[in-house]
């Protein structure tokens, strides 16, 4: 039996090469990058207050469910952007051989800044966007859950594309898989839900929401490809601002439009007191 090599305790005791404090300092050394995070924290907070105000008189349980869904978008966003701002969900990774950003340094370390916390934002917030859109369109639970499952798969494989450092080919392979999942979601929104919204009577609002959502969501893979994670044609701060602007459009503006419409409790969205009850004919008491 070959004895194992002795454990080098001094190596284990060595601190990480870059700390959260270093990343926090790096973020705020670049005001353009810092404001791309801070602005979204502020807007998410204001959007939550707007939802509370506009939804204060809602009585229909289905209308309330849509309001809660859009509120959770901003709840996730304010949390995730706080993680980015603090450096908690940022990392510096070295790109694989052949990548345009190979050999770059960030904050004195080899590699580029990766904002992997954004993928957490998208993974947990986009399902709530789709739940709200599906309910407004009058879709069934099967299609709504299908869209949610594909959007989670899209975000997770997008994260894999951002974090893969073993092979340039594998980075782009993950990107292709993520894009294919995205196209399934686009089909559901543009084809299935558009037809259902027309029948339900919510076509006018849904057409506006789908355009903002789909066009905005197409911007994310384009930015990925142009930014430091892809062809590195855009620097980190510009890429971050691009993502932040898209988040503003597809989250806060979409939420505001939904809540202004929802506050009137139009007949197309109301469903009666027993909506969502686990027992037919049973209406749970209000909290």
Give the topology, please:
Elements: H1 9-13, H2 20-29, H3 31-54, H4 61-86, E1 91-93, E2 105-106, E3 109-110, E4 112-114, H5 117-137, H6 141-163, H7 168-200, H8 203-226, H9 236-262
Antiparallel strand pairs: 1-4, 2-3
Helix pairs in contact: 3-4, 3-9, 4-5, 4-9, 5-6, 5-7, 6-7, 7-8, 8-9
Supply database-style keywords.
mainly alpha; globular; chromophore; photoreceptor activity; photoreceptor protein; membrane; retinal protein
Please describe what this structure looks like.
This protein has helices spanning 9-13, 20-29, 31-54, 61-86, 117-137, 141-163, 168-200, 203-226, 236-262; strands at 91-93, 105-106, 109-110, 112-114. It is mainly alpha-helical and 287 residues long. It has one domain: Up-down Bundle (Rhopdopsin 7-helix transmembrane proteins), CATH 1.20.1070.10. The strands form two sheets. Strands 1-4 form a two-stranded antiparallel sheet. It has a two-stranded antiparallel ribbon with strand order 2-3. A hairpin with a 2-residue loop joins strand 2 and strand 3 (109-110). Helix 3 runs parallel beside helix 9, helix 4 runs antiparallel to helix 9 (236-262) and helix 6 (141-163) packs antiparallel against helix 7 (168-200). The protein is globular, with a radius of gyration of 22 Å.
């Amino acid at each position: 039996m070959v004895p194992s090599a002795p454990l080098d305790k001094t190596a284990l005791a060595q601190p990480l090469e870059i700390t959260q404090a270093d990343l926090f300092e790096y973020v705020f050394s670049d005001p353009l990058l810092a404001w791309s995070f801070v602005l979204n924290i502020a807007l998410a907070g204001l959007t939550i207050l707007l939802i509370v105000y506009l939804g204060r008189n809602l009585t229909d349980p289905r209308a309330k469910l849509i309001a809660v869904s859009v509120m959770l978008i901003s709840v996730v966003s304010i949390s995730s952007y706080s993680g980015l701002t603090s450096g908690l969900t940022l990392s510096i990774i070295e790109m694989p051989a052949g990548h345009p950003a190979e050999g770059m340094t960030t904050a004195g370390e080899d590699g580029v800044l990766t904002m992997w916390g954004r993928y957490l934002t998208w993974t947990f917030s986009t399902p709530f966007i789709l739940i709200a859109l599906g309910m407004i369109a009058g879709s069934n639970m099967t299609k709504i859950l299908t869209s949610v499952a594909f959007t989670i798969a899209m975000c997770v494989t997008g994260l894999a594309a951002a974090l893969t450092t073993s092979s340039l080919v594998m980075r782009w392979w993950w990107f292709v898989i993520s894009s294919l999942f995205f196209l399934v979601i686009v089909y559901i929104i543009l084809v299935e839900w558009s037809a259902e919204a027309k029948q339900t009577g919510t076509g006018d609002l849904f057409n506006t929401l789908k355009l903002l959502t789909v066009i905005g969501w197409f911007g994310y893979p384009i930015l990925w490809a142009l930014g430091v994670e892809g062809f590195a044609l855009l620097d980190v701060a510009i890429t971050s601002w691009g993502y932040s602007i898209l988040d503003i459009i597809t989250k806060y503006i979409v939420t505001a439009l939904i809540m202004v419409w929802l506050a009137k409790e139009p007949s197309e969205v109301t469903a009666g007191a027993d909506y969502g009850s686990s027992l037919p004919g049973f209406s749970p008491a209000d909290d």
